[in-house]
Amino acid sequence: MDRHEIEGHEVIEGEVKATGNGAHVLVPKDWRGADVKIIRTSEPTE
């Protein structure tokens, strides 16, 4: 596993869920309009 260091304001943990031909991660509504970074921390189970 690689190690990455990023600066930010808040961290949440969640699960990627299938949506149509892709997938999504839900974040709080008050994050709308903010820049975010998604980091995969485990291998996909499918």
For the structure shown, list the relevant keywords.
46 residues, mainly beta, two-stranded antiparallel ribbon, flat, DUF2080 family transposase-associated protein, DUF2080_transposon-encoded
In short:
The chain is mainly β and 46 residues long.
Mean pLDDT: 92
Rg result: 12 Å
Distance between the termini: 19 Å
The beta-strand count equals 2
**SSE string:** EE
Helix content: under 10%
Largest beta-sheet characterization: 2 strands, antiparallel
Uncertain runs are none
Please give the domain count: 1
Separate helix tally: 0
Shape: flat
Strand percentage: 5-15%
Organism: Halobacterium bonnevillei
Protein name: DUF2080 family transposase-associated protein
